[in-house]
Design a protein that fits this description.
With 344 residues, the chain is an all-beta fold. It has one helix at residues 301-306, and strands spanning 2-3, 26-27, 35-37, 41-44, 46-47, 56-61, 64-70, 75-78, 85-95, 98-109, 115-116, 119-126, 133-139, 142-147, 154-158, 165-170, 177-183, 186-191, 196-200, 207-212, 222-224, 229-232, 237-242, 247-253, 255-256, 259-260, 264-270, 273-278, 283-287, 294-299, 315-321, 326-331, 336-342.
């Protein structure tokens, strides 16, 4: 596999925030880099130019206390197991009854080299050009598809070989349908800006429940492992949700090397990894759900070029068929759906 960068590197500057208090004890930023990989250690210390008496120093990362030292000793912040993304680092030096604060910012990025993953097209099938595909998933050998657009959104069961729609339910016109997944014999469907999702019976499509998002975010993609749901919101984040409460359990930030990957869209869980469309890119990212590292990327340009209808929109839609070990890929208003197989 060849090395591949999904997006250009974002250059960031470390910003030092002025200290509080009258004593001149400040964060030693001379030892800091702008970016660290998730397998490094960050050396933390203070400058004390006027030789103030320091009893102890507490160190914080994003307002979470990560350690302390007596006197002016240094502290090593081990990044192993920490999330990728920005960290506001803070020192609080205790000196003769004063608490002198200062802070700086770093970014933690992925140490993984993203690889270009090769694949082959196994089959090409017809796809409804009126389907603005937002979610795609196999369940009991049937392809479930969620579509978007106001007054046009739907949930469908589809014959993937012919494009025939077996069953369909339309959403109310005020909802813009987004990602779908089937978990524990329930169909979950997101909406875009309405902060609302739906739960259906997979056989009858009877709506059993509405749910409100855990916070005010957009709904984009949805998938699941054996225990949790995973939801994207159009940013670099993927949230892990408790399916019983739909509350946030955890989240990851998506990075390919030193670059944050935004606009993470439709999601599919495949063999312990999250496959994700990147909105407006002909690319599928393969993401480690534990860290957010993009381990590989599939270039879908040849699929996009094979779509012939003039009103096509962007790539979106990933469904894994565990019986065949193949992946089905389509896009919004595409006239084709492709069955692909990843090469070793």
């Amino acid at each position: 596999m060849k090395k591949y960068n999904l997006l250009a590197v974002i250059l960031l500057g470390a910003a030092v925030i002025s200290c509080t208090g009258e004593k001149k004890i400040n964060f030693n930023v001379s030892n800091l880099k702008q970016q660290y990989t998730g397998d490094e250690t960050v050396p933390l210390s203070v400058n004390n130019p006027e030789k103030e008496t320091i009893d102890s120093i507490a160190f914080y990362a994003n307002d979470k206390r990560i350690g302390s030292v007596k006197g002016e000793s240094k502290f090593d912040f081990n990044l192993k197991g920490q999330k990728f993304g920005y960290y506001e680092l803070k020192t609080v030096a205790y000196s003769e009854g004063d608490a002198v604060k200062d802070s700086a910012r770093i970014e933690v990025v992925s140490p993984i080299k993203t690889a270009l993953v090769e694949y082959e097209i196994v089959n090409t099938y017809p796809h409804d050009i009126n389907a603005y595909t937002q979610g795609l998933e196999f369940y009991r050998d049937t392809l479930f598809e969620g579509t978007g657009q106001y007054a046009k959104s739907s949930l469908r069961k589809t014959n993937y070989k012919t494009g025939e729609v077996y069953k369909r339910i339309d959403l109310e016109g005020r909802y813009f349908g987004e990602g779908v997944t089937v978990f524990n014999d329930k169909v979950y469907q997101l909406t875009w800006k309405e902060n609302t999702g739906f739960i259906y019976n997979p056989d009858t499509f009877k709506k059993e429940k509405d749910f409100t998002y855990f916070k005010q975010v957009q709904g984009w993609g949805l998938t699941h492992d054996a225990k949790y749901l995973y939801m994207s919101d159009g940013s670099e984040k993927i949230y892990k949700l408790d399916p019983a409460t739909m509350k946030e359990v955890d989240y990851i930030n998506i990075y390919t090397g030193a670059t944050k990957v935004k606009s993470v869209n439709e999601l599919e869980w495949i063999n312990g990894r999250i496959f994700a469309n990147v909105y407006q890119e002909n690319a599928i990212a393969i993401i480690d759900p534990a860290t957010g590292a993009v381990e590989g990327v599939l270039n879908m340009t040849q699929l996009d070029k094979a779509v012939t209808n003039a009103n096509k929109d962007v790539l979106n839609g990933i469904a894994y068929n565990p019986k065949t070990g193949t992946i089905f890929v389509t896009g919004k208003n595409w006239d084709k759906m492709f069955e692909i197989k990843i090469k070793k």
